Amino acid sequence: MRDAGAVVGPWSIRVLVTLAGLTLGGCAVGPDYRTPPLALPARYEHAARAQPNSAAAIDGWWKRFGDPVLDQLIADAVRGNLDVEQAKARVREARATRRQTAAALAPSVDGAASATHSRTSASGTGLNTSSNLYQAGLDTSWELDLFGANRRSLEAADRGREAADEDLRSTLLTLVGDVARNYVEARGYLARASLARRTAASQRATAELTRAKVQAGASSPVDLAKAVALAASTEANVPTLETSFTESAHRLGVLLGRAPGAVAGQLRRGSAIPAPRRSLPAGLPADVLSNRPDVRKAERQLAQATARIGQAEAALYPSVSFTGNLATSGVRVGDLGNASSLIWSLGPSVSVPVFDAGRRRAAVEVQQALRDQSYSAFHSAVLTALEDVENALVGLAQERVRMQSLGTATRNYREAARLARVRYSGGTSSFLDVLDAERSLYEAEDNLLQSRVVAASRFVALGKALGGGWSGPVDPDRPAIVDQDAGPRLATQP
Cα dist. 384→164, 176, 292, 390 in Å? Predict the structure, then answer.
């Protein structure tokens, strides 16, 4: 039996076929995204060569230090860092959002069933009447998406998923750079503390020599006091350097997702300040568009914002839905399958926006403004990337020049200090010459160590600026928490 209120004639079928054809044909409103052109310089101002650079040429740049301890720390950080875990979760969120959005393009079907037992008593007769009623049905609906609102929404979800992937890569790039920089600084603090201890020991030896001269009447107590003070001043630098080392070691521990003190002992057993064995190719300014994950993320977010304009504009046009219902009922369960108990309905429904006081148009303008913000953010990300590369290039080149000059100064101060001690021991030079030579030597050696740290840090900054990051496997599908027994069960008190 057919429900009299749900007659579907040939005209309805033709309308549905036409609407479905329009839907499958891909009608859409709003702007289609195109990567905006940007005016970029032809080469870096401070680069030696102007040749294209691939991601493969700069990935794993920290391995150019040739330091296995650093390599292991970075690998451990990729596995354990909590910022990376958050970025992985954002990837899973974006992928689930995309699947959720895609479901709007497909029909939805809901089922329902009920069983009712009733009993009535006839007044004055004392007779009771019992009856049963069984019902079952299906409801279906499908939005035909004539003007592409759902497809634009799916496009935005796709771009959001891609942006989340780039966000994960950007997080890994930042992590690798932070681990390398803190490792270099920790090595530098250890080297400087060791230098301070050695220098203080040498200065104490000079003080003992001065003490002997004072006792022999060949020197004054003033010289002895100055010698003791110089050794103490040098040794006073050790606690400050040890504190700085410990802070860097603690930062490394946290970056690895461990307790702050987890790697301090390992670092104390390490080697000298790392220095890169090979240089990094700077490439061309245009390479940042493809090699920098933060730039790629900003570009995908711009594409996402553009798709949302079309999603908002589709609300200005009519929407068409296709709904259907199938129901059956009977006094016995077996009656539910009888054709005579079936009731069904089928037909389209159209919703036309008539008046909303400009709300829908304002929603479009909101998305257009957000798109413009995303464009500015993308342009800013590109300029910042170029600035990072230029600064790293000039900083590294100039620090290497400075380091060479400091090396020359250190060698000469070392020779001056040696000669001053020899002449002072032989009584042909004053203690003032020794004091000045030892103070100058320590400052020169300490400055040279600091310059080595700065040069290594500039190399790290260049690797990050060029977009070199982790190219090994990363599994974003593995959740940090796996829920147990999450299905239906009896509720318990918390």
Answer: 20, 19, 11, 10
Give the alpha-carbon dihedral of 250, 255, 256, 262, to 10 degrees.
10
Rounded CA gap, 170 and 464, in Å?
10
Place of tokens 């103070």: 439
Ordered DSSP codes for 188-230: HHHHHHHHHHHHHHHHHHHHHHHHHHHHTTSS-HHHHHHHHHH
Nearest 5°: phi and psi at 178? Answer: -65, -40
Per-residue pLDDT band at 117 (split at 50, 70, 90): confident
Sorting pLDDT into bands at 50, 70 and 90, what band is 20? low
Minimum mean pLDDT range among 22-36, 130-144, 220-234, 275-289: 22-36
- Residue range 413-436: average pLDDT? 88
Are 378 and 37 in contact by the 8 Å Cβ rule? The answer is no
Q: Are strands 319-330 and 128-143 parallel, antiparallel or unpaired?
A: antiparallel
Please tell me the total number of residues recorded for the chain in this structure: 494
Checking if the pLDDT of 14 tops 60, the result is no
Percent of the chain at pLDDT > 90 equals 61
Of residues 92, 166, 192, the one with CA closest to residue 446: 192
Tell me if 164 sits within 8 A of 93, measured CB to CB: yes
Quick check: helix, strand or coil at residue 323? Answer: strand
Longest alpha-carbon distance in the chain: 139
Indicate the average pLDDT of the chain. Answer: 89
Burial of 164 (0-12, 13-18, 19+ CB in 10 A): buried
345: part of which helix (H) or strand (E)? Answer: strand 342-351
Separation between Cα atoms, residue 473 and residue 463, nearest integer Å: 20
Strand partners, 140: 109, 324
Assess whether pLDDT exceeds 90 at residue 261: yes
The mean pLDDT of 247-253, rounded to a whole number, is 97
**Can you tell me the distance from the alpha carbon of 448 to that of 453, in angstroms, rounded to the nearest whole number?**
9
Confidence of residue 7 (pLDDT cuts 50, 70, 90): very low
Are 182 and 260 within 8 A, CB to CB?
A: no
Long-range contacts of 207-215 (CB under 8 A, 24+ apart): 207/231, 209/424, 209/425, 210/431
Q: How many other CB atoms sit within 10 Å of the CB of residue 88? A: 20
> What's 88-132 look like in SS3?
HHHHHHHHHHHHHHHHHHCCEEEEEEEEEEEEEECCCCCCEEEEE
What mean pLDDT is predicted for residues 10-38?
67
The closest alpha carbon to 24, from 16, 32, 33, belongs to 16
